[in-house]
Design brief:
The complex is a heterotrimer of chains A (303), B (309) and C (279). Chain A has 303 residues and is of the alpha/beta class. Helix content of chain A is 35%, strand content 27%. In chain B, the strands form two sheets. Chain B has a five-stranded mixed beta sheet with strand order 2-4-5-7-6. In chain B, strands 1-3 form a two-stranded antiparallel sheet. Chain B is elongated, with a radius of gyration of 32 Å. The N and C termini of chain B lie far apart (104 Å). The chains are: A alpha/beta (303), B alpha+beta (309), C mainly alpha (279).
Chain lengths: 303, 309, 279
């Protein structure tokens, strides 16, 4: 499999606090990778290391299957933290600086890009007078300016209004599908990410605790019958022997999750009771995405 | 004399410096381009050539190469996308065809069992026939579309009164509308105006429009055939809940179906065929969605009476 | 690298601080001249000493009382230039340099070029070079302004071959020292990365470094070391540079020190920029 980004146990220490703790991330080509974590979990620091703005204390980074980072980073577009802009210049002048810095010969590229992100007609306006959304657009314009193959976006929808969020979402989908740009996008707004992401990485206290794709996510979030019983082993036997249910799991003591035959719940309950299992509680649980992520991220504790 | 010599030497040195700087720029520029091309050859990338420094006509070369690159890239991406859609649709068509075939086969196996009531047998046979009809329909549609696409469809245009054919065709769907429990509102004006088209194709347009409406519509059917100056407008409109405003552009694309996960009843070719035939007749198609009311309009030019009277 | 310089040059063109600082410097030239005019008038007895906020020290007055000649006979263009280079040039060019360098860090615009195919040293050196070029341009503007105002106020009397020789050698050395000084300021600002702190530190360096070096000289002298730090400090060199007939040893020392300081500040800047993370 082609990986656009592969990191091997990278670690960053500020003081004696491990901000990023041996993260091994794998971003496949063509993916939209949702990088999820609370504020301060280490998302930004991780992205800064990938983008070459900070050096990791330990570990290896591989971009496009190559260790020549300086060279391969030419193919990355980044928007990390706030957009890096000169506030005393207009959007056009800002892009002109980028154009010159990277020796892009197409002079009309600046205007084209402004149009692409919807910033035309701001010729006279300095960036310091821009709204948050406009600044964010300019940031995205800068990140896209050199036709990247891999986009790293840190909270790109922060501070945008709902319409802006939809616009950015559609823009990203379009870039991913039409130009086949791989995207690494961080957010703490889970609902927004789940609409576009194909892969997920969950970071908690600097450590990447899980990596999975949408298929696995669906698997984990699918509807199930949750049954609380006094004897889960007996219950498991009954399910297999009498009801021929194989698709279930036991997430904890006295709890069963059944994924099959959900249209015949009475049957399941009846059979269990007849065979001497006491049911304390039984309900149909469709753990939604948000709930699942919250469970992964926090465990409720505010640490 | 001394001063002039010094001046000459200074000028010479300056010229030398400038020339060698320009030479250095050229060499660097060429080297830079070489490196970037090497990268682009190796990788599948959106990357474009950049310039090391603006010297001579090198930037024009870069611009030209980039134009080519963009063009090729767009072409490549379009092909890849179409390929993907094509593969997906092959999968879905095979699935669509296999479902009725499997079911028919199941009934046949049951029929092979002995001692079966004659009545039951007939019922089963009828089901098998229905299933096979389904498959035939789909295959016909696929075949038809493939021929339109390949330009092999030999249309035999004739001049006829379109209104009658329209009325005839919609009457064939009477029962389907009854099954859906709603009677369509039919409007026909200018019944006698004539168009020049292949009759079979014309019928197919109307059929496909109605089938599409029956599958995706939820009620409020309106079918109309209206004379508008020098063209006729065929309009099929219904309420729907399965279509989005943004789908309007793609609705006439082949293999386009609104919701991938919805149980498939169509191949996604019906409207593509409508478009294909209409364009061959010199007409135009348009789809729109307004307040959950989905409308497709087809315009076909009218042939003036004088021409052949 | 050429691309980076081109980008820097574009930013330079668009930076208001360049124009403002240059204009203020020129205004100071005018201010110095108008002060001279006023002093001149006092000496000529036209304005009473002490009025209009101008106080001329008594000694200067007495010295010339016998024979009241125009002050411009004694204070030529080069003397004014010496004043300008002694204090104002350092202050305003370093304020500009602080704004120009720290502008990259204020909103993190520097991260658009870092890690994007350019080596860190290339990014730093393009900034370094462009800031020095800009400050040289500012100083040249100041020199031209001084020269032109000088023509207006003191006439073309002293413009002989010797004057031009002195002017050329003096300004050449001052520009070189100034460039080295700005290089140091760029390095300092690269390290502190904050406009406010950058300007403050730069002004402190301008104002107090002579004092400190002179102080250290005194201490050294007290301990009988035959060594003067102030001979090697850029600002002291700039202030001490004789306007007429620069002797060879001074010129050599100035050039060597300028080059050494440039290498030093460039090295420090590159090292820090290479290692430090970018916010």
């Amino acid at each position: 499999m082609d990986y656009v980004l592969k990191t091997e146990n990278i670690t960053k220490v500020y003081g004696n606090h491990k901000v990023v703790d041996s993260v091994s991330m794998h971003v496949k080509k063509g993916a939209i990778y949702g990088f999820i974590g609370k504020n301060g979990a280490g998302k930004t620091t991780f992205m800064r290391m990938v983008a070459g703005l900070a050096a990791p204390e330990e570990g290896e980074i591989e971009l496009f299957g190559s260790g020549e980072l300086e060279k391969q980073r030419l193919r990355i577009g980044t928007l990390i933290e706030n957009p890096g802009v000169y506030v005393n210049m207009t959007a056009k002048e800002n892009l002109e600086v980028i154009r010159r810095n990277f020796g892009i010969a197409e002079k009309q590229a600046v205007d084209d890009m402004l149009e692409f992100v919807g910033l035309t007609g701001t010729e006279k306006k300095k960036v310091k007078n821009f709204s948050m959304g406009m600044k964010q657009r300019l940031g995205i314009a800068i990140s896209l300016f050199r036709n990247p193959d891999f986009l790293i976006l840190d909270e790109p929808i922060n501070g945008l209004d709902p319409e802006g969020i939809i616009e950015i979402r559609e823009l990203l989908l379009k870039l991913n599908q039409e130009k086949r740009i791989t995207i690494l996008i961080s957010s703490h707004i889970l609902g927004e990410l789940s609409k576009i992401a194909t892969h997920y990485g969950i970071i908690k206290n600097g450590a990447l605790i899980e990596e999975f794709d949408t298929g696995e996510l669906d698997e984990r979030c699918r509807r199930c019958q949750k049954i609380f019983v006094d004897n889960e082993n007996l219950a498991a036997n009954i399910l297999e022997e009498k009801l021929h249910i194989n698709s279930f799991d036991i997430p904890g003591k006295g709890v069963l999750r059944i994924f099959e035959q959900l249209d015949d719940l009475e049957q399941i309950n009846r059979e269990l009771i007849i065979n001497g299992v006491n049911i304390k509680e039984s309900y149909l649980a469709g753990q939604n995405l948000e709930g699942y992520f919250m469970e992964l991220l926090g465990g409720g504790a505010n640490d | 004399m001394q001063a002039q010599l010094t001046a000459a030497i200074i000028i010479l040195i300056l010229t030398g410096i400038i020339l060698s700087f320009r030479l250095w720029c050229y060499r660097k520029q060429i080297h830079h381009i070489k490196e970037e091309i090497a990268l682009m050859e190796k990788e599948d990338t959106n990357y474009q050539l950049s310039s090391f420094c603006p010297i001579g006509e090198t930037e024009e070369v870069i611009l030209a190469v980039n134009r080519l690159l963009v063009h090729n890239k767009e072409e490549e991406n379009r092909l890849k996308r179409e390929n993907r859609i094509y593969r997906e649709s092959i999968t879905s068509i095979s699935h669509d065809i296999r479902t009725p075939l499997t079911s028919a086969k199941g009934y046949l196996q049951m029929l092979q069992k002995a001692n079966m009531k004659e009545e039951k047998k007939r019922e089963y046979l009828k089901t098998v026939e229905q299933r096979l009809d389904n498959v035939t329909d789909m295959l016909n549609q696929l075949f038809e579309y493939a021929r339109i696409e390949a330009g092999e469809m030999e249309l035999e245009p004739e001049i006829f009164q379109a209104g009658n054919l329209f009325a005839e065709t919609i009457s064939m769907f009477y029962e389907d509308f009854l099954k859906k429990n709603c009677e369509p509102k039919v409007t026909i004006t200018g019944k006698s105006c004539k168009i020049r088209a292949d009759k079979h194709a014309f019928v197919r347009i109307i059929e496909n429009l109605i089938k599409n409406a029956l599958v995706h519509g939820t009620g409020g059917y309106q079918l109309s055939f209206i004379q508008e100056e020098n063209q006729i407008k065929i309009r099929v409109s219904n309420m729907t809940d399965s279509i989005d405003e943004k789908d309007m552009d793609k609705i006439f694309d082949r293999f386009y179906t609104t919701d991938q996960s919805r149980s498939r009843k169509t191949t996604g070719l019906g409207l593509a065929i409508v478009k294909g035939f209409t364009i061959q007749m010199g007409g135009t198609v348009k789809a729109q969605l307004k307040d959950e009311r989905f409308t497709i309009e087809v315009w076909v030019p009218i042939v003036a009476d004088e021409i052949f009277s | 690298m050429i691309n980076l310089l081109s980008g820097e040059f574009y930013k330079l063109q668009k930076s208001k601080s360049l124009y403002i600082c240059s204009i203020v410097m020129i205004a100071f030239v005018l201010f110095v001249y108008s002060t001279l005019v006023m002093v001149d008038k006092i000496q000529q007895g036209e304005v009473e000493n002490g009025s209009m906020g101008v106080v001329v020290s008594e000694e200067a007055m007495e010295e010339n009382e016998e024979n009241p000649v125009s002050i411009f006979e004694q204070i030529g263009i080069l003397d004014v230039l010496e004043q300008m280079f002694g204090v104002f040039a350092g202050i305003f060019t370093s304020i500009f340099a602080a704004i120009f360098v720290c502008g990259e860090y204020g909103n993190g615009a520097i991260k658009n070029v870092t890690g994007k195919g350019y080596g860190r040293w290339q990014i730093f050196s393009s900034k370094y070079i462009m800031t020095i070029i800009a400050s040289i341009l500012m100083m040249i503007a100041m020199i031209i302004a001084t020269f032109l105002f000088g023509l207006v106020f003191s006439g073309t009397g002293g413009l002989d071959g010797e004057f031009f020789r002195n002017l050329c050698s003096y300004t050449a050395i001052e520009l070189l020292l100034g460039a080295a000084f700005i290089g140091l300021i760029v390095a300092v600002n690269e390290i502190c990365r904050n406009i406010g702190a950058g300007i403050a530190i730069s002004i402190c360096i301008v104002c107090f470094s002579d004092l400190i070096t002179v102080g250290i000289d005194l201490v050294l002298k007290y301990f009988h070391f035959d060594f003067k730090i102030s001979d090697y400090n850029l600002l002291n060199l700039m202030a001490d540079c004789p306007i007429k007939n620069i002797d060879k040893s001074f010129a050599v020392r100035a050039v060597v020190m300028a080059v050494l300081w440039i290498i030093f500040s460039f090295g420090i800047g590159v090292l820090h920029f290479k290692k430090a993370d970018i916010k």
